[in-house]
Design goal:
This protein is 81% helix and 0% strand. It is mainly alpha-helical.
């Protein structure tokens, strides 16, 4: 099976699953593939909406039904949860519309909204649907628009493939050597 056939066959399910798990990266890539003619942009946006919406609803439901016990009692999670809860108390409905665009609290916010019980489930569904559709359209279209520019860059890079590969390889080796050297130094300095 060729890569092109794989993209055409599995592209849309991959967008749904990818946006269930990650989001922006998958959607930007799918927008790029739509620009290149492998996928349809409207279907990419629809699939991204479905995956992201389902993920948020699941997180909201887990927060509402399981509460704080769902989270590992680690400071990292608890700090993010507290940050999201503070935003919910301050901005309530506005945070549902905008949290998807705030790096660092995107994943935990639907849990926090569910835990807080400040927003009824029906209202969350409606506001989440509006927010998710806007997000899918903006990010998917961004991938599509930048896909044209990226396509030109990729075509240009092809003529320099070996040089770029050599530079990346040398840089990777250098980083590895520096880390190895630091490890040796730290072992020698340890009592």
């Amino acid at each position: 099976m060729t890569l092109e056939l794989m993209i055409i066959t599995y592209g849309y399910p991959a967008v749904v699953i990818g946006t269930l798990l990650e989001g922006e990266t998958v959607l930007l890539l799918a927008g790029f593939l739509a620009q290149r003619g492998y996928l349809e942009l409207s279907s990419v946006i629809g699939c991204a909406f479905l995956g992201a919406f389902l993920a948020d609803q699941l997180c909201f439901w887990l927060g509402r039904t399981k509460g704080i016990s769902f989270f590992p009692q680690k400071p990292f999670f608890l700090q993010k949860l507290e940050k999201a809860e503070n935003l919910i108390y301050q901005y309530k409905k506005l945070i549902i519309i905008g949290y998807r665009f705030i790096y660092g609290i995107r994943t935990i916010t639907p849990f926090a909204i569910g835990i807080s019980k400040k927003i009824p489930a029906r209202q969350f569904v409606l506001l989440n649907a509006v927010s998710t559709m806007g997000w899918a359209a903006i990010i998917g279209s961004g991938g599509y628009l930048f896909g044209g520019v990226l396509g030109i860059i990729i075509d240009e890079i092809k003529s320099y493939e070996l040089k770029i590969l050599a530079i990346i390889s040398i840089a990777g080796i250098m980083v590895g050597l520096v880390q190895f050297y630091r490890h040796l130094i730290s072992k020698k300095l340890s009592p």
